[in-house]
Design brief:
2 domains
């Protein structure tokens, strides 16, 4: 049994094949152990690999649950966004030059201007 590295998930067909190979290897190890033709070390190694795989799955599940939680926290309701836009528009209409400077600074915007000479 091999452990899949974090963030790397094989395609579905490969996962199915991998799962079948894993099941076959476990069944083979069990048959050999039950006949007494294999030392106890082989099943113990298999158990270790299975436990490693289970830990990896638990870590992946935790990582995905955290990502899902982040997505749920940052999901936006279109109605709330529309209300925020309306409030912002009303405030921007009455903004002073100092307010605009503060807004542009907060957004990290640099304003460059060049004086244009008249062509007379």
């Amino acid at each position: 049994m091999s452990v899949v590295p974090a963030g790397k998930r094989p395609p579905r067909s490969e996962r199915c094949r991998h799962d079948r190979e894993e099941q076959d290897a476990e069944a083979r190890a069990f048959r050999l152990a039950s006949r007494g033709t294999v030392s106890e070390e082989v099943p113990n190694q298999e158990i270790g690999l299975i436990q490693t795989r289970q830990r990896w799955i638990a870590e992946q599940r935790q990582r995905l649950e955290e990502q899902l939680s982040d997505v749920r926290r940052s999901s936006f309701d279109p109605h709330n966004i529309a209300m925020l836009r309306q409030r912002s528009e009303a405030r921007l209409e009455t903004a002073t030059p100092e307010d605009w400077r503060h807004i542009l600074d907060a957004l990290g915007v640099n304003v460059l201007s060049r004086r244009m000479e008249s062509g007379s």
